[in-house]
């Protein structure tokens, strides 16, 4: 009589373990995919920010070169303003997707670039740019998992 219960009990136990393992693996897979998507979004936002800040630096260099002219060309001024707008929009994405450390240094870099971009002394800008790159790389490559803010 006791033998009659062994089969159903073992089947129930194995079924419960199988279902639990399936749910756990599905959840783990979902988290991995979610993390990959977040990292892809971060790379895109970081790339856009770096692209626009580089455009700002290039435009600022053109404007500095044109400073000897009676009036800078409208093309250079417009390009600089467009790059600044793009960098500001990209910084907003960084603030949403990235951790505080990345946002803080990126914000300081953009502020310095706006404030000092047209000056010939670029040491502070270069230092901030290096710091931004270092923090962004460390955050993307160095961590398996990190949540925004």
Structure description:
- With 149 residues, the protein is mainly α.
- The chain is built from four helices and no strands.
- Helix 1 runs parallel beside helix 3.
- The protein is rod-shaped and about 100 Å long.
- Residues 144-149 have low confidence and may be disordered.
Give the CA-CA distance, first to last residue: 61 Å
Q: Mean pLDDT, rounded to whole units?
A: 85
Q: What is the percentage of strand-forming residues?
A: under 5%
User: Helix content range of the residues, please?
Assistant: over 70%
Compute the CA-based radius of gyration. 26 Å
Q: What is the structural class?
A: mainly alpha
Say how many strands there are: 0
Largest sheet: none
Low-confidence sequence ranges: 144-149
Number of helices: 4
| SSE pattern, N- to C-terminal | HHHH
Shape: rod-shaped
What does the secondary structure layout of this molecule look like, with pairings?
Layout: H1 3-65, H2 74-97, H3 100-116, H4 123-141
Helix pairs in contact: 1-2, 1-3, 2-3, 3-4
Gist of the model:
The protein contains 4 helices and no strands.
List keywords for this structure.
about 150 residues; mainly alpha
């Amino acid at each position: 009589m006791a033998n009659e219960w062994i089969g159903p009990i073992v089947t129930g136990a194995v079924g419960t373990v199988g279902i639990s393992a399936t749910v756990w693996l599905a959840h783990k897979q979902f988290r991995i995919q979610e993390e990959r998507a977040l990292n892809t979004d971060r790379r895109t936002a970081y790339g856009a920010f770096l692209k626009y800040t580089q455009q700002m630096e290039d435009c600022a260099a053109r404007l500095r070169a044109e400073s000897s002219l009676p009036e800078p060309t409208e093309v250079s001024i417009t390009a600089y303003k467009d790059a600044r707008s793009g960098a500001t929009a990209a910084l907003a994405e960084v603030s949403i997707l990235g951790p505080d450390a990345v946002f803080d240094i990126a914000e300081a870099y953009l502020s310095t670039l706006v404030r000092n971009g047209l000056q010939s002394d670029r040491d502070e800008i270069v230092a901030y740019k290096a710091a931004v790159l270092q923090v962004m790389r460390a955050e993307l490559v160095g961590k398996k998992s990190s949540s925004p803010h």
